[in-house]
Structure formats: structure tokens, C-alpha cells
Predict the 3D structure of the following.
Amino acid sequence: MVHFKEWSSEDVRVQLSWFDNGTEVIEAQAFIHVIRQSLPFSQQLQVVHNAWIRLSCCCGLPISPVFKRYYLSDMANQIEEVKMLERSFQNSPYACSYIEQPPLDGTKVALYTYLMAGMKIERGKEGCTKASHNGYTHLWEGGWNAVEGGPQEQTESVMQDYAQMLVSHGSTLEDNCIRTWLFVDDIDRNYRAVVQGRNQVFTLHQLTPDTHFIASTGIGGRGSSCRSFMQMDAYAIAGVDSRQIRYLYASSLMNRTSEYGVRFERGTCVDYGDRRHVFISGTASINNKGEIMHVGDIQRQTERMLENVAALLEEADCGWGDVTSSVVYLRDMADAELVRQLLMSVLKNIPFILVWAPVCRPGWLIEMECMATKTIHTTFPAY
């Protein structure tokens, strides 16, 4: 089952969830938030880092990081200091991503981290992170980008290189990639080209409306290189059987994304012998005709977004109590306090972060993604 815990000190607040159903593998996710907005960036970064270090025994036994993502307020002036800090852990195998999506609590940095106990965690080929157990190898990649060409060419290059990396681990983009995150600099200008690049790659790999796509978030955000128009994080599973994977649609509320020219799944669930993982893609206030609902009304867009996400979770036989983490992206930072109150009434003790990040259509004022985990029993190998 999913457990939740939150604690604060003078400088930092930690929201933690962990899944422990008595089997060999425990999973944990956390958001670490700075409290004192007045601290300079170097001190904010240090208090976040110190809190992350203390997470190593948060669930009563040693637990190791698999993935980290820094949310930064000013990439150009902050990235070198963050990378210098991370270089002291260069022998640690976890994947790491840096994105300029300012936390909407007035601070300069926040951190998301995913941790595990009971897995063998090591560095894989081409720098990806491998977490292995019971015949599965979970492949995490953070901060993949390119610097040559325009946004379409960079997207094609990044995704093709990623596909080749999967081949080197005995996997393919079409069979094993479960989730991607595409962070697009100046999204109002560059998103269409990024979509075209992804569509080209998907066609090459037989990811079409007649087969399936990949759960994804495509959102505004500046990556760690000033020469990159987009940056990608990704998660894949080597050793998974296609029968373990199911796609979520909530078709009474939303249509297929391919009907309006993009290619991603609304959500994906993966079943193991002992648990189900659910990955809900970036979801906005949309209807089953692909139209923006409640144009200009942030409260009603937030309510419709939550309704859409709840329907996807229900299709996976999950509810809000199974959600282990959520990221919420807001186009206009002036809406932050209203949205925070609306979210807290639903998410309650679920770890989440609210960041400034324009959504892929200007009319969408807000978008959210989440992950969920629940105990199930199947004949597939356990996680």
C-alpha cells in the first residue's frame, strides 16, 4: 500500500510517499521544497541537498536514488552550481535531469527524487540508469538533448539516439518505452516542430494510431543547454511482456491525441505479479473532441483537468489514494494561490509540486501528470 509522510524544518519541507506491500522491492518518491524564500540560491540548493541525503533511510531501511529532477528558477545562473554539486556524486548511478520550471512558492529550487530498496542499481550503456530485479531492467534517462539543427531536427536526433540506446539494452522504443517527458524551450513557438519530429520517429518505429503511442508530457521548460530547443527524460522496461501493458483513454471525456495531430497515450498501466504502476500523461482541460474546455477560466479548467485525471485513474482501477506523486504546470503564475488551494482539496497528502511552465496550447492554463501504484496479484513475475 501507499504510505505518506511530510515533515518540515526551518528551511525545508519534504513530502514523501512510499509503496511497501511486504515484497522484496520498496519504492519511494519525494518532493523537497525550500521554505525560506530569502535564502540565496547557494543556500537553498544546500538545504535541498541535505534533505535529500537524509532520505536514504526514510522508509526504515536503506533506500537508493534512481532518478532526480531539479526544478530551477534561472537555468543560466544556477546550472553550473548544481552540476558542481552533482559531480561529487558522479560515481553514483542515478539519472539526473535539470529543468528551468520555477517552483511557484517563491523559491529558486525544488527537487523530485525516486528511490528504491531491493533493486540492483547500476550505470548502463550510454549513461542510462539500470535498476534490475526478478528479470526486469528498469531504464531511466535524464536530460537527453541535442545542440545541432532546429527543434524538429533536435527532437528526431534525441529520440533516435534514445531508440538506439534501448536496442543496446535488448529493447526497442515501440515495445519497451513506457514514459517520456519533453521539455520545450519557448513552447509557443517550438512545440509544433517538436511534435513533427516525434511523429517522424514514431512512424519509423511503427508507433501509429493503429498500434499504440507512449505516455508523455510535452511542456514548456528550458533545458540545461542554451543551444537546445528541447530536452527529454524517459523511462523504459527491458524484460516486460506486452500483455503486461495497457493503455488508458477515458474516451467519454477525451479523444485520441492523434485526432488533433500529436502522438501520445493519455496514460499507461503496467502490471506485475505484485503491483500495478500507472503513468498519467500531462492532462489538461480537454473534451472528447480535442477542444479546450472553459477558455480563460482557471478554476473551471483546474476542475475539468482533475476530472479527466480521475477518469484515467479509474480506468486503471485506481483512485487518488493510489497516487504517489504529481506535477502541476501553470501558465500564469498569478493563478498559483487559487490553484494550490483547489489542488490541496483533492490531493491532500499526496506529494506534488506546482511549477511555472506554459502548456502546449496557449488556451490551456494548467496541466497535470501523476504516477500511481497499487497492490495486485497476477501470474506475471513480481516487480
Residues 105 and 354 are 8 Å apart (CA to CA). The chain has a mean pLDDT of 96. The chain has three domains: 1-117, 119-240, 271-383.
